[in-house]
Design goal:
Length: 219
Amino acid sequence: MKNALALVAVAGVATAAQAAVTYNDAQEDLFDNGFGNLDITSVVVSHDATNLYVTVNTRSYQSWTKYMLYFRTSNTFDDTNSNGWNRPVTLSQNIDRYVGSWVDQASNNQQNWSWDGLQWNLDSTTSNDQSQTGSNAVTFTIDRAFLGLTGNGLVFFDVATSGGGGGDPGVDHLSTNSPATPGWGTGSVGGAFNTYVIPTPGSLALLGLGGLVAGRRRR
């Protein structure tokens, strides 16, 4: 019985290590609140041993929406305030990884960019998950190795929505609850980055098991 309880406790800790975190955003905080497809309501982040998963929820959905995800990890050495698409966006932190994506194409619609200290490089083109667009949600799968986070670490991030023009700013940023831009022709300004903690999957379970063993020894 004690062994069974110990396994349940460890399993519970392991599950908690990969639990999804929801980051809410204010609604109708755009320069034009008619663009419900650009109005972020929340972003949900989770991970497993291989990937980080980011689901962007918006007030409505349109296939012309563009998504921009900005990342800086605790392992960053070189970073920049620019982005892979060269969109007119000013961030509150520098970044070293950028994901730009669109939904008017069924696959090969997610670009994963890395900064090498001198320039942006398109590392890979993958596909986002559009299976929940009926609920105004799009999910992005991001390789943890691409982020430089195969072990423990922190991910500092912002998410923005935009239009199809190469000079379009971030119309809504997860990081701010006020309009990020006064209009299409003006660059956007983001707020403080959000933080997501990545423990190595199973590491918390081992810690939990260690605590159980220690407890037995004390008893």
